[in-house]
Amino acid sequence: MREKVSERKKRNRNRQATKIAMSDLTKLRQDEWLEADGLGGFASGTMSGIRTRRYHALLLAATKPPAGRLVLVNGFDAWVETAAGTYALSSQLYPPDVMQPDGARRIEKFTLNPWPQWIFALEDGGKIQQEIFIVHGASIVCLSWKFLTPSSKAVLSLRPFFSGRDYHSMHHENPAFQFQPQTHDHRLVWSPYSGVPGIIALHNGEYLHQPDWYRNFVYEQERARGLDFTEDLATPGTFHWDLANGEATLILAAEGFENDQLPADQPAEQLLLNFRAAERKRRANFATPPDRAADAYLVKRGNGKTIVAGYPWFTDWGRDTFISLRGLCLGTERLEDARDILLEWSGAVSEGMLPNRFPDQGDRPEYNSVDASLWYIIAVHEFLEATKSITRVAYQWQKKSLQKAIEAILTGYSQGTRYAVRMDADGLLAAGVPGAQLTWMDAKVGDWVVTPRIGKPVEIQALWLNALWIGSQFSERWKEPFARGTESFRTRFWNEQGGLLYDVVDVDHQPGKVDASFRPNQIFGIGGLPISLIEGEQASRIVDAVMRRLWTPMGLRSLAPEEPGYTPKYDGGVRERDGSYHQGTVWPWLIGPFVEAWVRVHGGSADTKREARQRFLAPIFEHLDSAGLGHVSEIADAEPPHTPRGCPFQAWSLAELLRLDRGVLAASGAEENSHRAARK
After folding, report:
1. Do residues 589 and 555 touch, judged by C-beta distance below 8 A?
2. What is the mean pLDDT of the chain?
3. Is the distance from CB of 660 to CB of 599 less than 8 angstroms?
4. N or C: which end of the chain has fewer CB within 10 A?
């Protein structure tokens, strides 16, 4: 049944202004917010203010965008003194699970948009608003507090917590930390360690230097992941403001990365007003909350752009970038960003391969992915389709550059390249060597490759044949390999007894050896790519089986429940989690190819699309209100209640939701206008 427009509007209004039952402290500590700066740095935390991850920070700067991330300011303690008493506005977790102070219990309301805002209700009836937002394009975070009720006395105090560490590491008390700031009126600059950017603080209050260490902060999520979970942080002193006299302002920035946006002749309160107005205007330009969320992943790399795979711990990965580009850029009509990203990566083609990721340290890319290059070809094709009506000379030149990259990839793969990647005599693509993990199912623990998939994996063939078809549109040389490979695919992968496609054929490069594990990869033979390779009754049987055995409201399981090795829950230490990563764990990004396949086999009518939207997209849209607020998680447990896991802000998960919403399931005319109105 068609969802009423008024109900959709109501649901989306709630998504824009996320309100929570403040008695639910567990939810406060689990749901996370994110502010990204467009450079790869960010601010993040929980609604409760309690940091549960080593990555939660107020000022986390990317010194070599989007890599080289350093945590400079981790958090703060804040309290307010009124005529009736002193009340905490913050909470920390210390051993053995002691919450101190008790500020989280005073949170009355949390609002996500246009940026994170909290309302604290004090026992004396007073209310205080706190807000945090990042300035786009600069490593600057703005914090402010104001009293919402009349008060003759309201003194706010704040102790910031500093580190200056790599964002993957932990910080502990040591004699090398430099507490003493350089001061100039209401501007302070700390240089915590040699080689670490200085921390700039501008404020409109008073600062009292009181250096100290706060020890043994507990990070719950790190403990749950089997990692070290306690940290010591340095606190140089205390800021004080009289809220009865107006709004308290604190602006934090990474020295050398503020892009001259902090002129010495402007007071902090004026800078806050300027930044607030500029950010409010910038964010208002996004059509919907998901559009605004998508913007967080598009960041600078060199002179171009790239896509961060996820927050808080991923940087830019080739595979994730090209899968995500279709939804994050093309789905939101950010064509210039798509062009810049594709051109930036085109220069990294080597022996027919694009790197799977640029590592955080150093410039040496890692060419350990068979599918990243193929996803690049898919992304280029869809970009060129979206811009084919543009006749500007620059676009035509760029089109040739992108087609040249496609040609280089197809040539390298057909002739043979790293990791035994090569086109075989049957026109299919063989790949893999022992000890390497080349497909998206890439979990590896030490020397243990959990799902090696050496041979001819099914989704790699779907990508390869789509890439050959794309190449054949402008080069005759790829037509015959495409025809030969397509015929081989249809005959060699079909498992009549199971009514499905094999996951891998020629396993371990042994001709005729097959892996019949029921995994979601076969869905790419029908949906998620420009052309379908399987059609008719076979396609319907596959989609029905995937729906029955793999589909959940959060996406597709990575392995069917009755298969050997199936793991219902993603938890435990590193080995346990990585061992279950692709052994049943649900992946929301797979909802994209699945829904597209479902629509194709059900005729693709307007009624079919409406049913798919209500049946498959509605649960994912509801997920935007939990875990990584406004975003879609990386993974979820295989069994109900399908608890979100992994990275709470995942690019390709959100991207595939957008690709479905704006492309595959897009309506036309008045109905599409109605959908867009509901999403605002």
Report:
1. yes
2. 92
3. no
4. N
Task: Write down the residue that tokens 């000379």 correspond to.
Answer: 393
Using the CB atoms, write b or e for 112-125: b if 16+ within 10 Å. bbbbbbbbbbbeee
- In the listed set 250, 284, 318, which residue is the last one of a domain according to the structure? 284
pLDDT digits (tens, 9 = 90+) for 192-237: 999 999 999 999 999 999 999 999 999 999 999 999 999 999 999 9
The model's pTM: 0.93
- Residues 447, 477, single domain; the answer is yes
Q: Which amino acid is at 473?
A: Q
Give the count of alpha carbons within 13 A of 105, CB side only: 7
Residue identified by tokens 């391969």 is 353
Q: Check: CB of residue 128 under 8 Å from CB of residue 33.
A: no
Confidence of residue 16 (pLDDT cuts 50, 70, 90): very low
Task: Tell me which residue has tokens 């598009």.
Answer: 298
Q: Which amino acid is at 567?
A: T
Point out the domain boundary residue: 284, 300, 325: 284
Tell me, what DSSP letter sits at residue 39? S
DSSP-derived 3-state class of residue 478: helix
Does residue 677 have a pLDDT over 50? no
Work out the pLDDT band at 23, boundaries 50, 70, 90: low
Are the CB atoms for 55 and 91 separated by under 8 Å?
no
Indicate whether 536 and 604 sit together in one domain: yes
Per-residue pLDDT, 257: 77
Contact 77, 100 (CB under 8 A): no
- Spatial CB neighbours of 303, under 8 Å, sequence gap ≥ 6: 344
Where does 503-631 show beta strands of DSSP type E?
Answer: 504-505, 514-515, 551-552, 555-557, 586-587
**Residue tagged 């992968």 (tokens):** 493
Name the DSSP letter for residue 348.
T
421 and 276 inside one domain: no
Instruction: Identify the pLDDT of residue 183.
Output: 93
The SS3 assignment for 464 reads helix
Dihedral sign (CA 208, 213, 216, 222): positive
Report how far apart, in Å, the C-alpha atoms of 603 and of each of 213, 458, 535, 548, 613 are: 65, 24, 11, 19, 15
Taking a C-beta distance cutoff of 8 angstroms, is the pair 390, 398 a contact?
no
Looking at the structure of the chain, the number of domains it has is 2
d(CA 50, CA 219): 9
In angstroms, rounded to a whole number, what is the distance separating the alpha carbons of residues 319 and 653?
13
Is residue 264 located within the same domain as residue 372? no
Give the model's pLDDT for residue 580: 92
Domain that holds residue 517: 289-679
Report the pLDDT value the prediction gives residue 668, as an integer from 0 to 100.
Answer: 56
Report which secondary-structure segment, H or E, holds 190: strand 187-190
- What mean pLDDT do residues 430-449 have? 91
Residues 353 and 263 in one domain: no
Q: What pLDDT, on a 0 to 100 scale, did the predictor assign at position 8?
A: 36
